[in-house]
Write a structure and sequence with these properties.
The complex is a heterodimer.
Chain A (H helix, E strand, L loop, with lengths): L1 E5 L5 E2 L7 E2 L2 E4 L5 H10 L6 E4 L6 E4 L3 E5 L2 H26 L4 H20 L3 E5 L13 H9 L9 E4 L4 E4 L3 H17 L1
Helix pairs in contact in A: 2-3
Chain B lengths: L1 E2 L8 E10 L3 E6 L4 E6 L2 E3 L13 E4 L5 E4 L1 H10 L7 E2 L2 E2 L7 H12 L5 E9 L11 H13 L3 E6 H9 L7 E6 L4 E7 L2 E8 L3 H12 L3 H11 L11 H32 L8 E6 L8 H9 L8 E6 L6 H17 L1
Parallel strand pairs in B: 2-10, 10-11, 12-15, 15-16
Antiparallel strand pairs in B: 1-11, 2-3, 3-4, 5-7, 6-7, 8-9, 12-13, 13-14
Helix pairs in contact in B: 4-9, 5-6, 5-7, 6-7, 7-8
Classes of the chains: A alpha+beta, B alpha/beta.
Chain lengths: ~200, ~350
């Protein structure tokens, strides 16, 4: 099972494929794509999280540090765009020569459009999220995560300042409970004999 | 999950409690009284603009900053009047992630429901659903929240599967062998038991709320209104004397979704039984149906009709309704608590 653990409280997170949940939380994400989960967490501003796998033989713990946002070499990317653009321009020109050689205004329009495309390509978002594999760290099976996080996860109950007032809201049903005692005796005997 | 609360030794004889923590209702049965108490597991936070002239007739919680929360069935009544949606501490059988601040209100409601336990040693079994086969949420958080609530009230607690509680309540004559199904509001819970031992338990996220939401979505209505019509007029057999066309249309849609719910649950029982039950059950076993969603007249007949269309992987002796579908789980939990306390002596 792969579990996503977020300790920081106060976030309401929606990940497609599982029910929305509120942090702090420990959620089973075995059926989800980890890069997808990480990118969703990034978009929601969650920077501290843990992804724990306890599959036998594949135990591994990943943290936010294992997922880095990489920028490709801008120079290389620029060259790539230019190459593609020149090729595109060449193809378009050939096409135009055949079909619209008598209409120079069309040529101008197309050149303008190509210029716009060139600008847009240059400004395109260059960020690529890449998941890097970290060294496999076996999960210590003896660590019971839920117990550890018990106090953080379960909210404190604070009844100070809250007072129950007015009429009683309960409905009461009278019933004969003589068989309940017999059932309890029987269950106790059956369960006792199983032990 | 079991824990004994350490504290001062209490003098009176111990009191055993069964607490059914349902999405729609909280139900409490105690060993020292013949009364079973039920309260709606909902509340309505009141806006500052809303003024209610007579608060003494309704049950409410007042906060430090004069915040008001109407609790229980009155919350439904006033939500319909004000055209608001009630807040629900639970959703789909588990503590709702949307209403996390409601845990304090829920604690007060449980405190009121349990009644006086100050001078008594109290032992309580509370219901938890089985892991859902169609919903990714774990029950761990839910189980721990209720454990903390009971701990804060000074009660010794044990969590017990909800559908197993139906077996404890209704299957004594079969020596606690059978299939218990609880069609609640948030979930349908199923347990297969053999001589008191759980052989299989699972839950599905389709139950009463699913019926209401799908009906409301189909007819472009608010789910509150559908729930209200369902509880007032719904019956799954016999003629319904309703003249209002819109109500008739709601009842028709509700019928289709009840049938679809039963069909889905039966298919899942067969699938899970085939895949996961290893024991050889050499005798025929009963199916016991319980829960608020099974209350409408004709539900059992519809269930029998649907299941007759399938080949079952077990011998079925009979299909019967729990003596009281609203209190069966709480009574079963009480049986379990009393049995555990007897075992301690």
């Amino acid at each position: 099972m792969i579990t996503l653990i977020i300790n920081k409280p106060g976030h309401y997170i929606e990940i497609p494929g599982i029910s929305p949940f509120r942090t702090p939380a420990s959620v089973n994400i075995s059926n989800l794509s980890i890069p997808l989960v990480v990118s969703i967490l990034n978009t929601q501003g969650i920077t501290k999280f843990e992804i724990v796998s306890n599959t036998k033989g594949k135990g591994q713990t990943l943290t936010q540090n294992d997922f880095v946002v990489l920028n490709k070499n801008p120079k290389k990317q620029q060259d790539n765009y230019e190459k593609r653009f020149n090729k595109l321009e060449e193809l378009m020109s050939k096409l135009l020569q055949n079909q619209t050689s008598n209409t120079p205004s069309n040529k101008e329009q197309i050149t303008n459009r190509l210029n716009t495309i060139e600008k847009q390509l240059k400004n395109a978002d260059k960020k690529v999220i890449r998941v890097t594999k970290s060294e496999s760290k076996p999960v210590k099976q003896k660590e019971v995560k839920v117990e550890e996080l018990y106090d953080t996860f379960i909210p404190e109950i604070d009844l100070k300042g809250l007072e129950l007032k007015g009429a009683v809201s309960q409905k009461t049903i009278e019933q004969d409970k003589s068989d309940i005692d017999d059932n309890a005796d029987l269950l106790s005997r059956i369960m006792g004999s199983e032990d | 999950m079991t824990e004994e609360v350490k504290g001062e030794l209490k003098k009176d004889s111990p009191v055993c409690i069964g607490l059914d923590c349902g999405t729609m209702n909280l139900v409490c049965a105690r060993s020292d009284t013949d009364e079973v108490k039920i309260t709606r597991n909902v509340f309505l936070p009141l806006d500052g603009d809303i003024q209610i002239s007579e608060l003494s007739d309704i049950s409410y919680v007042e906060g430090e900053d004069n915040e008001l929360f109407i609790i229980g069935s009155d919350a439904f009544k006033y939500a319909n009047i004000f055209g608001q949606k009630v807040s629900r501490p639970m959703e789909k059988g588990l503590i709702s992630p949307k209403e996390i601040s409601a845990i304090d209100i829920l604690t007060l409601m449980i405190k009121e429901l349990l009644g006086n336990i100050k001078t008594k040693e109290a032992y309580c079994s509370y219901s938890i659903p089985a892991e859902s086969i169609d919903e990714g949420r774990s029950i761990t958080y839910h189980e721990n929240v209720f454990a903390r609530i009971l701990k804060s009230l000074g009660v010794n607690y044990t969590s017990v599967n909800e559908a197993m509680a139906i077996i404890y309540s209704e299957c004594a004559k079969e020596k606690f062998s059978g299939i218990g199904i609880s069609f609640g509001a948030g979930m349908a819970n199923v347990a297969v038991a053999y001589k008191g031992i759980k052989a299989l338990a699972f839950s599905t996220a389709r139950a009463g709320d699913w019926i209401d939401n799908e009906t409301a979505a189909s007819l472009g209505m608010v789910a509150n209104r559908v729930t209200s019509i369902k509880e007032k007029y719904m019956q799954l057999s016999g003629a319904v004397e309703i003249k209002n066309k819109k109500t008739k249309r709601v009842l028709e849609a509700l019928y289709y979704y009840h049938k679809s719910l039963i069909d889905y649950t039966v298919k899942e029982i067969i699938k899970e039984f085939n895949e996961k039950v290893d024991i050889e059950v050499d005798e025929s076993i009963p199916i016991i149906i319980s829960g608020g969603t099974s209350i409408p007249k004709g539900f059992i007949e519809l269930f029998k009709d649907v299941i007759s269309g399938y080949d079952l992987p077990f011998d079925l002796s009979e299909i019967r309704r729990a003596k009281n579908p609203l209190t069966a789980v709480a009574n079963g939990l009480l049986v379990r608590t009393m049995s555990d306390v007897k075992g301690m002596k």
